[in-house]
Amino acid sequence: MKLYALGDLHLANRANRDALLSMPAHPEDWLIVAGDVGEREAHLHFALEVLKTRFARLLWVPGNHDLWTMANDPSQLRGEAKYLRLVKICREAGVLTPEDPFPVWPDPPAGSDGYRLAPMFLLYDYTFRPPEVPASAAIDWAAESGVVCSDEYLLQPPPHPTREAWCAARLRITEQRLEQAVAGGRERLVLINHWPLREDLVHLRRIPRFSIWCGTKATEDWHLRFRAAVVVHGHLHIKGTYFRDGVRFEEVSLGYPRDWDQGRGIGSYLRQILPEPETWLSSPPPAAAGSAPRR
Q: Does 3.60.21 match the CATH number of domain 3-274?
């Protein structure tokens, strides 16, 4: 029994939808769907219908694309209402979300304290920026390089006044739940979020100032505070395995069709989270090219 992860399916792209249909069956394994399934409810329905037939259980966290309110979306749900609608769709399909109790991994290795899986929804707050750039100037700083995330137009925060305020609320809620999890058991946690938890994992050579839409410095030490065995995230479209303080970080995105080799098939991009792979090479994040700023 294995736990896999794959994020950033971006099912608005026909090539990605076709690839998902070719996903091999893993009838005993679980899959983390790490956000950015697509911009429409239909994309989420499609992904869950396909993946439920391939895996024993699914866990989902939202990405920024999932939360967009498109101009021709008949519901015009925004902010928390949009998020809770997606949670409802997942729950109706039997998929675990950040609003559900953290499940215990049912196949722990012998002699271990086991693992608890912690899907999270945290957003970002523009703090992944140089110290000399004030918060009020962060978006202008990014725009100077020709980068403005589409979230600024499509990801609405109601009832919160700003995305930063929504992020702060999600941090408070999630921090309390994680504290309860580590106080109430001995299991190590698998932290799961769409956005990276650490700024030093955000290396976007072509669009470096896109970093402000990539996370929050408030989570910099969560891998240590909350007894993490593995941290799973996507968003960057730069797949890789890294280590910080002895903790494994997995970037698990698929990405747009230009970001992955379609000849390999989508199954080859599944990242194994559990059981712990026998060997990993520790290396700093590569100076790899980022995708276009429409993330």
A: yes
